[in-house]
Write a structure and sequence with these properties.
The chain is mainly beta. 0% of the residues lie in helices and 52% in strands. It is built from no helices and eleven strands. The strands form two sheets. Strands 2, 4, 5, 6, 9, 10 and 11 form a seven-stranded mixed β-sheet that branches. A four-stranded antiparallel β-sheet has the order 1-3-8-7, with no helix packed on it. It starts with a strand and ends with a strand. The model has no long low-confidence stretch (mean pLDDT 94).
């Protein structure tokens, strides 16, 4: 069973930076599309950034130019570098992998809080 474990969430001031990490129990990050989602209190879970096995990336408009998604760690780690953080970036951030024939796999989430 594939497991995803996120880390790196923290309390940071506006304008600051954080790097989130997601470690997988197997090399799923080169099998299917993977990405980061976030969910703020009372809101739905939305896509933040995604990357395909070929390395193509996609970002939601509000984070373009500030966030960068990447893979590393022998293809078992997914990163989200977040710069110029804003209070509206406050949310629980989830790692997601879409694995062919298996479906969606989610991590447990990591809290990011940006103070103004």
């Amino acid at each position: 069973q594939v497991q995803l474990v996120e880390s790196g969430g923290d309390l940071v001031q506006a304008g600051g930076s954080l790097r989130l990490s997601c470690v997988a129990s197997s090399r799923v990050f080169v099998i299917g599309d993977v990405g980061w989602y976030r969910q703020a209190p009372g809101k739905q879970r939305d896509m933040v950034a995604r990357i395909t096995p070929q390395g193509s990336t996609n970002y939601t408009d509000s984070v373009k130019g500030r966030f960068t998604i990447s893979r590393g760690g022998a293809e078992t780690t997914l990163y989200l570098q977040m710069n110029s953080l804003k209070p509206e970036d406050t949310a629980v951030y989830y790692c997601n992998a879409k694995i062919p024939l298996i479906g969606d796999i989610w991590g447990q989430g990591t809290q990011v809080t940006v103070s103004s």
